[in-house]
């Protein structure tokens, strides 16, 4: 087997410690080799806790490490552009947390920097590497539910009291649309294989939380009179379902974006008046995401989801935020 790719983790964010680094540890193709923080003690402590060999007290030092192949960026949204470009200029491939940037223009700048440096830039929507999404697409293509009439999805959690959370900083790219609304938007585009034509979003902007959207509900229009209806929030009970409604049936994914248990991987098909469970093998989506990037880097396999897809998703997010702020329908 080829040598493992060595990953450098740019920051000690919760998603890195809780999910991405453990996912790398499970991989036979990738290795979490180094971590950096502007707080050297924090980097050292995290490295010790998560069995990472090297800890750096600056992001720059990590980028200068010639042994590192891939940089993972879990920094606050407003820092994605700067550090993705700096990582590209250092010759590192990049996995950057979603959303890729603050807007589509920034995302395009990041993509251009990666192209110029000859490195790969991938957006970290881990859920779509789970095999069940390929199964869902195959069910749709087979006609199992007839013609698609609509998609419903949501992603909400309840965390309003963590007032120092970066999600509650407007200038840092805070808010529920950026943080969790991006998932239903991305999933609808993935399953329909199309880009939206217009969006209409209503949001609750909280003065207690730097005026970020703490809850948003929207309608996303696609060609053929098919629409996604979604909601997202950071001040509501936890849930993350997805439903594809067809003329002849329904596909349900009760836990669409997170799969903490084997049971949460399963999907449900209702057709011919019968609802049945479709069992899906339990897969760590974070490991699958890293392994997919490995094959693109080492074997030249095209990215499963090209950077252009991330730019397109940012255009939809931009439109949703504009619609919510101006309380109007926005065309794309």
From TrEMBL:
The Gfo/Idh/MocA-like oxidoreductase N-terminal domain extends over: 5-124
Name the InterPro entries for this protein: Gfo/Idh/MocA-like_OxRdtase_N, Gfo/Idh/MocA_domain, GFO_IDH_MocA-like_dom, NAD(P)-bd_dom_sf
Q: Listed GO molecular functions? A: nucleotide binding; oxidoreductase activity
Keywords noted in UniProt: Oxidoreductase
Pfam families given in the database record: GFO_IDH_MocA, GFO_IDH_MocA_C3
Domain of life here?
Bacteria
Residues covered by the GFO/IDH/MocA-like oxidoreductase domain: 133-252
The record's family statement is: Belongs to the Gfo/Idh/MocA family.
Q: What is the protein's given name?
A: Predicted dehydrogenase
């Amino acid at each position: 087997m080829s040598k493992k790719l060595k990953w450098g983790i740019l920051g000690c964010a919760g998603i890195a410690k809780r999910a991405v680094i453990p996912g790398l540890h499970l991989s036979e193709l990738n290795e979490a080799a180094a971590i950096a923080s502007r707080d050297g003690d924090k980097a050292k402590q995290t490295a010790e806790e998560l069995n990472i060999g090297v800890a750096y007290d600056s992001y720059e030092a990590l980028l200068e490490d010639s042994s590192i192949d891939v940089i993972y960026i879990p920094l606050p949204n407003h820092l994605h552009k700067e550090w993705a470009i700096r990582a590209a200029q250092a010759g590192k491939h990049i996995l950057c947390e979603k959303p890729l940037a603050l807007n589509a223009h920034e995302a395009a700048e990041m993509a251009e920097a990666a192209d110029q440096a000859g490195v790969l830039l991938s957006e970290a929507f881990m859920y779509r590497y789970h095999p069940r999404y390929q199964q869902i697409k195959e069910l749709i293509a087979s006609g199992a539910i007839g013609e698609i009439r609509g998609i419903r999805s949501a992603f909400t959690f309840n965390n309003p009291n963590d007032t120092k959370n970066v999600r509650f900083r407007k200038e840092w790219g805070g808010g529920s649309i950026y943080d969790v609304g991006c998932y239903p938007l991305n999933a609808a585009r993935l399953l329909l294989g199309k880009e939206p034509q217009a969006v209409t979003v209503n949001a609750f902007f909280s003065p207690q939380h730097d005026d970020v959207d703490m809850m948003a509900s929207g309608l996303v229009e696609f060609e053929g009179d098919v629409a996604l209806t979604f909601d997202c929030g950071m001040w509501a009970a936890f849930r993350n379902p997805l439903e594809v409604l067809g003329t002849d049936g329904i596909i349900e994914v009760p836990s669409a974006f997170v799969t903490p248990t084997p049971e949460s991987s399963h999907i449900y098909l209702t057709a011919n008046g019968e609802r049945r469970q479709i069992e899906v093998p339990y897969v760590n989506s974070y490991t699958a995401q890293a392994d997919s990037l490995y094959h693109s880097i080492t074997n030249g396999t095209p990215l499963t989801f090209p950077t252009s897809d991330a730019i397109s998703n940012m255009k939809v997010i931009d439109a949703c935020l504009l619609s919510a702020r101006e309380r109007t329908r926005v065309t794309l």
